[in-house]
C-alpha cells in the first residue's frame, strides 16, 4: 500500500480546562500518525510519564522529610 499523504506539521488547539482528555487526544493523534510504531511510541511515552511521576514522588518525599527535620530541630516551648 502506497501512502499518498504524509503529516509533516500539526497545529493544535486544546482546551486547558480538561487537561487529561486533551493530553490523551493529542498523544493519540500524534501516535496514530506513525502507523506500525504505535506500540513503541506509547511505551516510550509510558516510560517518560513513569520517570516524571517518580521525580514528583521523590521531590514530595524530600519536602516532607525536610519539614519533619525542621519541626524536630525547633526548640520545644
Structure description:
The protein has helices at 19-31, 38-73. The protein is built from 2 helices and no strands. By secondary structure, the chain is mainly alpha-helical.
Explain briefly what this protein structure is.
By secondary structure, this protein is mostly helical. Helix content is 64%, strand content 0%.
Residues in β-strands, percent: under 5%
> Which structural class fits the helix and strand makeup?
mainly alpha
Query: What overall form do the CA principal axes indicate?
Result: elongated
What portion of residues is helical?
55-70%
Radius of gyration: 21 Å
First-residue to last-residue Cα separation: 79 Å
What is the quaternary state of this protein? single chain
Main sheet overview: none
The string of secondary-structure elements, in order, is HH
Number of extended strands:
0
Number of helices: 2
The low-confidence runs, each spanning 5 or more residues with pLDDT under 50, are: none
Give the mean pLDDT: 88
Amino acid at each position: 500500500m502506497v501512502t499518498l499523504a504524509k503529516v509533516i506539521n500539526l497545529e493544535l488547539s486544546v482546551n486547558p480546562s480538561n487537561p487529561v482528555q486533551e493530553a490523551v487526544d493529542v498523544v493519540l493523534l500524534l501516535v496514530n500518525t506513525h502507523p506500525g510504531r504505535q506500540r513503541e511510541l506509547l511505551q516510550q511515552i509510558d516510560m517518560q510519564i513513569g520517570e516524571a511521576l517518580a521525580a514528583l514522588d521523590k521531590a514530595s518525599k524530600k519536602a516532607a522529610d525536610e519539614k519533619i527535620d525542621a519541626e524536630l530541630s525547633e526548640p520545644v516551648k
